[in-house]
From TrEMBL:
It holds the Pfam family WS_DGAT_cat. One of its GO terms (biological process) is triglyceride biosynthetic process. This is O-acyltransferase WSD1-like N-terminal domain-containing protein. GO terms for molecular function: diacylglycerol O-acyltransferase activity. It comes from the Bacteria. Transmembrane segments: none annotated.
C-alpha cells in the first residue's frame, strides 16, 4: 500500500494528556531509554527486501532520534492546537519507525505526550502495551483472546478459517453502487478532534441490549454520520467501517507487524425504521436522530458483530492471521482498505486503569487511528480510567470535521435514553 500511495501517511498512535509540570526533553529521553528494556522490539530495525523483511536488534539505536519536543508559541488553546498538529504531522527521521513528541508551553501545569508508529511495524494492541509500559501501571490488557486451541478440533478450525477467508474476500467484490467522491481536496495535513463519555454508560447501554460497548460505539458513529451528512450536505448513500479485530494468542502481547484482521462492517446510517429520509435529515440537521432510530441502529450493528464476539470466529481469525500466506494477505488488505469497500477506519482499544509520568498523572487519552487514502476519517475509541474517549482523525479539509465528537456524544445520549427503563 505504501508503494501505491507514497505520499500518504501510514502511521497511527495515540496522545496521553497529563497534569503537572512537563519534564525537560533530556529527562524524557532518559525516561524512555529507561523503559525500553521492557520493549526490546522498539530498538530493532528492518532488514531484507520488501518481500521477505525481518527484524534485527539495531546496534546503532539512538533514543535522541525517536524522542522530540514541540513547544507551543504561547498560552491559549490556539497555540496548543498548533503544537499538537505539528506533532501529529511531523515526519519520522530517516530509518526510524516510531517517535515520541513532548508537547508543552501552553500552560504551566498541563502537557501531552504523542506516540506515533508506522502501522506496518505495530498495531493497536501492541501500541496499547507500549502505553502501559511507558505510562501505565503495568496492568494486563483487557482485550478478549481466544482460549487455547486443541489439536482434536484442528479440522473444524481449518474449515472455519477457510470459510471465513472466502466469505471476507468475496465481500470485497460486492458492488456498492454509486458512491460520491471524497467531498474535499486532501491537503495532506491531519487534524484531531476529541470527545468523551463515561465508559460505564457505554457498557450499560450495550448490556441492556445484549451487546458490547464497542457495538454502542459503532451505533453512535452511525448516528453521528447521519447528522454530519445532513449538516454538511455530503451525501452518504452507504457507509462501511473497517474494524480491526485483535487476533493475538494470549502470549503475544507485543510483536512487530500486525496481529489483527480487518473486517468491513456496514453502518446503518441512512435507513430509519419509521420515518422518511426527509424527516430523518431534518432531525439530523438539528443534531438528533430520533428516539426510534437510535436503538434500531444498535440492533443492526449487533446483528453484524454478534459472531465476532464468539469463540469460534475469534479462533478462526487468529488462525487466518497466523497461517495465511503473505501474497493472499497482501491482496486482501489492498482490497479491503480500498475506498470502494470501506469509508472509515473504526478501532477501539482498552488502554489502562491509570497512568502517569513521574509526579504527573494521565488525565485523558486519544487514539490516532490510521487515516487511509480515500477514507473520510479514522475514528478511535480508547478506554482509560473511567472514560471512553472518542477521537476523530481526518484531513484538515474535511467539512465540519470538528463537529463529529459532539455528534457522537449526542448519539450516545440518545442510545442511553432508549436503554432507560420506562417510568
Amino acid at each position: 500500500m505504501e508503494r501505491r500511495h507514497p505520499d500518504a501517511r501510514w502511521d497511527a498512535g495515540g496522545v496521553a494528556y497529563l497534569s503537572g509540570p512537563p519534564p525537560s526533553l533530556p529527562d524524557l529521553r532518559a525516561y524512555v531509554a529507561f523503559r525500553l528494556p521492557q520493549l526490546p522490539l522498539q530498538t530493532s530495525r528492518i532488514e531484507g527486501g520488501p518481500r521477505r523483511p525481518w527484524w534485527r536488534p539495531d546496534a546503532d539505536f539512538a533514543v535522541d532520534r525517536h524522542v522530540h519536543e514541540v513547544v507551543a508559541a504561547g498560552p491559549g488553546e490556539g497555540e496548543w492546537d498548533t503544537a499538537l498538529h505539528t506533532a501529529l504531522n511531523a515526519p519520522f527521521p530517516s530509518g526510524t519507525y516510531w517517535g515520541v513528541w513532548l508537547l508543552h508551553g501552553h500552560a504551566p501545569d498541563r502537557y501531552a505526550v504523542c506516540y506515533r508508529f508506522h502501522h506496518a511495524c505495530q498495531d493497536g494492541a501492541a501500541a496499547a502495551m507500549t502505553f502501559r509500559a511507558m505510562l501505565g501501571g503495568g496492568e494486563p490488557s483487557a482485550r478478549p483472546v481466544p482460549g487455547k486451541g486443541r489439536l482434536t478440533g484442528l479440522p473444524r478450525r481449518v474449515g472455519t478459517a477457510v470459510g471465513l477467508a472466502a466469505r471476507f474476500a468475496s465481500g470485497t467484490f460486492v458492488a456498492r453502487g454509486a458512491r460520491p467522491a471524497v467531498p474535499f481536496v486532501p491537503t495532506g495535513e491531519r487534524r484531531l478532534w476529541r470527545g468523551r463519555v463515561p465508559a460505564a454508560d457505554l457498557r450499560r447501554i450495550g448490556s441492556a441490549h445484549g451487546g458490547s460497548a464497542h457495538d454502542v460505539h459503532l451505533a453512535a458513529l452511525a448516528g453521528a454520520l447521519a447528522a454530519w451528512s445532513a449538516r454538511s450536505g455530503v451525501p452518504l448513500p452507504r457507509v462501511t467501517a473497517l474494524v480491526p479485530v485483535d487476533a493475538r494468542r494470549s502470549d503475544e502481547d507485543q510483536t512487530w507487524g500486525n496481529r489483527c484482521f480487518a473486517l468491513p462492517v456496514e453502518l446503518p446510517v441512512r435507513t430509519d425504521p419509521k420515518g422518511t429520509d426527509a424527516s430523518r435529515n431534518a432531525r439530523g440537521a438539528r443534531g438528533g436522530q430520533g428516539g426510534e432510530a437510535a436503538p434500531w441502529r444498535l440492533d443492526r450493528v449487533m446483528a453484524r458483530t454478534r459472531k465476532l464476539r464468539g469463540e469460534t470466529w475469534r479462533q478462526a481469525l487468529q488462525d487466518l492471521v497466523r497461517f495465511m500466506p503473505g501474497r493472499p494477505t497482501e491482496w486482501y488488505l489492498r482490497r479491503v482498505l480500498s475506498p470502494r469497500v470501506a469509508d472509515v477506519m473504526a478501532t477501539s482499544m482498552p488502554l489502562a486503569e491509570k497512568g502517569g509520568l513521574g509526579e504527573s498523572r494521565v488525565t485523558g487519552t486519544a487514539l490516532l487511528p490510521l487515516l487511509v487514502p480515500g477514507h473520510l476519517f479514522g475514528v478511535g475509541l480508547s478506554f482509560f480510567d473511567t472514560w471512553a474517549e472518542v477521537s476523530f482523525v481526518a484531513d484538515r479539509a474535511l467539512p465540519l470535521g470538528e463537529s463529529l465528537p459532539e455528534l457522537w456524544e449526542r448519539a450516545v445520549a440518545e442510545l442511553e435514553e432508549s436503554a432507560a427503563p420506562p417510568e
